[in-house]
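Running this now, will post back.
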Amino acid sequence: MTNAQPGAAQNQLYDLHRSFGALILGIAAMRLLWRLFAPPPPALEGLPRWQELAARGTHYALYVLLFAVPLMGWAGTSAFGAPIFVFGLFELPPILSQNRDLAMVLLTTHKLLAFTLCAVLALHIAAALHHHFIRKDATLRRMLPRLGKR
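Update: finished.
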């Protein structure tokens, strides 16, 4: 999107990017509400304490980043002065007044946090696969309940 030629196609890519960011923010909010009413099951027995702490830290990091990344993008876009049309259905209100210098800082932070989110997500996936294929425990089946019912 940033490498596309300026114009209509690039604007569409940015609109799509912002729309998916708004969607992710909404899904993250629903997921957090779900988690408040349906707490996770206890850790598996025999799991080393450091792995339990790493899992908990990774989960917290995922939640924080799933909110921080889209909110930072929304703030940066607002400070840039660009509108956020969500899939052409409605427009999100700006949450900051226009300030191009602040926008550059916020959007750079948005980008760095997005890369951090990708790294934490990759770690989370790798750990789940490690538990399933190496440790051969029920961690992945607990994450994907239908997997255990087949």
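The two ends are 41 Å apart (CA to CA). More later if anyone needs it.
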